[in-house]
């Protein structure tokens, strides 16, 4: 087996069994009815059901009580805990489109969200996001993004939005050598940087091809490609190129690093912490936990434990699903 074949992805949240949507809806209504809210029941139910089951609960809730579950959560809960529970209720298919819409709406664009989503999603996922965006918001995602961004950062986003990365297949060593040389000449060997070459190669070549290109680049130049990008580019373009490279190497390692930096140092980037924990909980959060433990000498569980509090912490730890001491 080649070291580049992807192992099946593993989430921490799976379908709950035996599942009874009506019983869950009734328990949630009871937890939020009258004076005070029983947050423990809310978080226990919502973190232990998968997204498809949560949608069934919302449907049963409306059928039984004529009330909207998400509206009730918003009126009964507050702060980060509310944001997390409402995020868990968002249907999977719309999650990324919703995050992108909010990243490009109003004053200022959240480049971090654009970078994280477009660098890490597969071409099939990106095509789906564009379709959902059009259906739900009656707007063209590419037009919205180009209206809010500029320069080479914008151009690489547009390349990624085309979702035309070469499919994985046999790797042509001649082309690997050629791309590695082109990148070397476009960066280290040039006065100034030919950003376009980086954008085209990193944005369109297959994952298996690029992994070989990175190895070859190291042989030719003596540098990791990340070091060159760090030296030769800056700002939003640099962050996006680095995110693309990291995701080519390993998506779980990229998210482990994203989670680590959302909690490291003073203050927590709760938006990122919630977005990653929710969006990866059914995909590869177990793999992310392994990478986290390997790369940061502590477990994701320990860092969440230390960095958050209250019901918010309880719910995040349940999503995390275990401690890798």
From TrEMBL:
<dbReference type="GO" id="GO:0005634">
    <property type="term" value="C:nucleus"/>
</dbReference>
<dbReference type="GO" id="GO:0005737">
    <property type="term" value="C:cytoplasm"/>
</dbReference>
<dbReference type="InterPro" id="IPR018502">
    <property type="entry name" value="Annexin_repeat"/>
</dbReference>
<dbReference type="GO" id="GO:0005886">
    <property type="term" value="C:plasma membrane"/>
</dbReference>
<keyword id="KW-0106">Calcium</keyword>
<dbReference type="GO" id="GO:0012506">
    <property type="term" value="C:vesicle membrane"/>
</dbReference>
<comment type="similarity">
    <text>Belongs to the annexin family.</text>
</comment>
<dbReference type="GO" id="GO:0050819">
    <property type="term" value="P:negative regulation of coagulation"/>
</dbReference>
<keyword id="KW-0677">Repeat</keyword>
<keyword id="KW-0041">Annexin</keyword>
<protein>
    <recommendedName>
        <fullName>Annexin</fullName>
    </recommendedName>
</protein>
<dbReference type="GO" id="GO:0005544">
    <property type="term" value="F:calcium-dependent phospholipid binding"/>
</dbReference>
<dbReference type="GO" id="GO:0005509">
    <property type="term" value="F:calcium ion binding"/>
</dbReference>
<dbReference type="InterPro" id="IPR001464">
    <property type="entry name" value="Annexin"/>
</dbReference>
<dbReference type="InterPro" id="IPR018252">
    <property type="entry name" value="Annexin_repeat_CS"/>
</dbReference>
<dbReference type="GO" id="GO:0001786">
    <property type="term" value="F:phosphatidylserine binding"/>
</dbReference>
<dbReference type="GO" id="GO:0055074">
    <property type="term" value="P:calcium ion homeostasis"/>
</dbReference>
<dbReference type="InterPro" id="IPR002392">
    <property type="entry name" value="ANX5"/>
</dbReference>
<keyword id="KW-0111">Calcium/phospholipid-binding</keyword>
<dbReference type="InterPro" id="IPR037104">
    <property type="entry name" value="Annexin_sf"/>
</dbReference>
<dbReference type="Pfam" id="PF00191">
    <property type="entry name" value="Annexin"/>
</dbReference>
<dbReference type="GO" id="GO:0005262">
    <property type="term" value="F:calcium channel activity"/>
</dbReference>
<dbReference type="GO" id="GO:0034704">
    <property type="term" value="C:calcium channel complex"/>
</dbReference>
